[in-house]
Amino acid sequence: MGGERAMTPDDSARWRDRGRDRMSRGMRLVSASGARVVPLSRLNPRVRARVMLPSLFTLGNMICGFSSVLLSFQGRFRVAAVLVAVSIVLDIADGAVARAVGAITPFGLQFDSLADLISFGIAPAVLVYTWALPAYPVWAWAGAMFWLSCAAYRLARFNVTIDPLADKRYFVGLASPGAAGVVIATVLAIGEPLYDYDPLLPVVAGVLPAALMASSFRFRSFRDLLSPRHLRLTVPLAVLVAVGLFFWPGVTGMVLAFGYVLTCPLGWLTAPVRRRWFGEDAVAPPRRRLPSLIMPIEDPPEDSSQGPADDARGGPTGPAGR
After folding, report:
1. Is the pLDDT confidence value at 278 over 80?
2. Which family does the record assign (predicted)?
3. What is the CATH classification number for the domain harbouring 86?
């Protein structure tokens, strides 16, 4: 008809924008805290690349962990252990890069947690299982399942436990990369599958670090070593560790992994002396009791008449109170 006109490119773009707006009103991303999330499509390419840069390290972490699983089933235990070690380096790098570029996002946190479950949960569990299978098949299966369960619990607890007053110098429980380091060091030091070794060795290498992951013992994070003011100490130490891993990977790995695990009991034993000599800041502050990790605390009823009954029962009714 005479009143109609052909649709221009501007009209097409306007209709596409209206369609996106209608979809965004029906489906909206939110973070764990309830804050609205900005879609990547609304960011300019430079900001989008900066936001996604840490996730590239996380993706490399996950790929190395999955490759380690495949190599473990092929009997290439040393290479599988080295790939888990590479995953640890990439896991440290993605957090450092995210803080450096200011790209700590809810997506990045969840992606990192899923990658860690593969690299430090499934990969070490499969490595322990295949490495110890020739001599102890049943115990190897049980140890692998126990490791995976503790790693998943450790990562889930870390995701839901948000305590802004906690001392950032410490982890609650052995961090999953530190636990994986014990398996890596033991495999690199011994190499071949376990045939004639004492059964205590798989327990120490597989079960003890897994139990420490799910524990409430505190381990130093040593994050302060990555700060610029400690580079004078960090750089020579990193060079020394790199040289040791290159020439004597088994011995150096055992010293680092088991030495880190021993920092927890040694720190507890030396706490009185360090407090007396260096002050209260030299020891971990007392832990505050946190709410349940399984069930959230229910809000008290608005009816004031229910208050004394709740107090008489020792807490609110429902799963959280029980």
Report:
1. no
2. Belongs to the CDP-alcohol phosphatidyltransferase class-I family.
3. 1.20.120.1760
